[in-house]
């Protein structure tokens, strides 16, 4: 039977587009109100805030995250190649802006190790190109953020035009100028992606690519911190292969290790790891996580200050951290042009991590987020703070997990965290002057435990899916051994190539009938299937398009043990020889057969079927090449008196076949060539003479 298709009303796209444009361009008071309510979601949920129910959990989670943020912000400044004060600015502004614009109730937006690393790599490259020395012993910072110029290599003057005035800029000033320009451009990209609704870009970053990227970047972060752990002074490597070059430099200079830093690092790592493991084991008994990082920083700062570790043992310390806020400044346009390309992967990674975490926790706690608004939120978390000497931000999984475990209900907790950071900014920052850099490096390395544990999951991942494991390994290796940006690009391209290859060489099979049923399955995969006499049933498990056309034909010919083109050529050759013998008056063929026996010879013994059923249930679409391929096999098999029947085609495939003229003029033969189940096609083939 042939099912009757519904007639769809043709949509006039031009009129629809114009109507949408008129609607979006119209301005009414209600529409203006809705726009502001959508752009600032806080206006919707804050008036409905249940103070008695939510306030305790929000305050507790906000305080805990604020306490964690301070040491992490100071530590991650090493990754970004910037002073700790800028990390504190970043943490403060990001929490405030996301509170106003974010749609997730739980994610913690702020400084993130992976983003800090990507910023640091761009900052280091530009500092090197500008002629600055990349060693970390910078001169002290003044309260206004400028740098004292004592004719040291780190304070090489660089002429920078700011608001039309030619100003001299030292290393620290130029570094934060690069970081803010990069951050501003990343934010602009994110806002533009939100305006043009390009959130679908995140779909091309699979879980394997993201995990591999994060793990490879973690290895790079770990490598960059080793020199602080052991207190050696080596140049910060730049360019491709940074990980290998850094390790070579570490082993070359291992004899210069500072014993004080080595002992301090060993003690801090043991304390931090032990506390983390105990916290993970007894987290169900703890009301909130132990502030181990803060305790370690406070104790280490006191020991360093009163033990004079910097003066006596030459241990590297954080140095002066000014209090208050540096006056805002517009990011330099000329620097934006230099880092415009670097900002693109930064924008994509920042957005993808934020949206994926937002969706994960929204699903867990049964509410919805708006991905497009999240893109605006994280975009403005980069644009606005870039005027206040801050750098790029993103949502962070570890801090978000802590927020949810300590009772977070809304983004009020983010405001509380920002107040804790503000307290440090205004009053407590100078107290961290004597904090050793090796302690900060320990905090960073221990925070990488989650990403580095992915190596333990490789066997399980391989067992689940070998291709995804290969994507993970390639992305991780490229991110670690080449560079983070190249690693991300390699991961995306390689994962797409894997999909293309899998559609180019998909599974193919001949089907057999499940006994006493009307169902058919792969003859090589299941036992006790019965073959259908004189009928071959072929399944192709992929779309049929130009890239896999040849594989489709080769598989079909191999499994059916018949190439119709070769058989047709062999028959023509035989007929030609037969005609030549008949013309000579020889009534016997070259094989010694009589003319009456010729018909038997023309039908080869290997053709043991009269109908070919193609199971199209796994063919999701056909392109022009795919339609022409099916028309080709229809014609070739018809020349051998073998009928070709299609089964289980979806509507789009049927439409493609109709447009391609597969069913003839006006699709008159359609009911004899197309069937809605394999069994119907088999019954039809059996009834044929």
Automatic annotation (TrEMBL):
It is found in: Apical cell membrane. It is a multi-pass membrane protein. It catalyses: sulfate(out) + 2 chloride(in) = sulfate(in) + 2 chloride(out); nitrate(in) + chloride(out) = nitrate(out) + chloride(in); iodide(in) + chloride(out) = iodide(out) + chloride(in); oxalate(in) + sulfate(out) = oxalate(out) + sulfate(in). The chain crosses the membrane at residues 54-76, 96-119, 173-192, 212-230, 335-355, 376-398, 410-428, 472-501. Keywords: Cell membrane, Glycoprotein, Membrane, Phosphoprotein, Transmembrane, Transmembrane helix, Transport. Gene3D superfamilies: STAS domain. One of its GO terms (cellular component) is apical plasma membrane. InterPro entries: S04_transporter_CS, SLC26A/SulP_dom, SLC26A/SulP_fam, STAS_dom, STAS_dom_sf. Signal peptide: none annotated. Residues 525-685 form the STAS domain. CDD domains: STAS_SulP_like_sulfate_transporter (cd07042). Its main location: membrane. Belongs to the SLC26A/SulP transporter (TC 2.A.53) family. PANTHER family: SULFATE TRANSPORTER (PTHR11814). This is Sulfate transporter. It comes from Regulus satrapa. The lineage of its organism: Eukaryota, Metazoa, Chordata, Craniata, Vertebrata. The gene is Slc26a1.
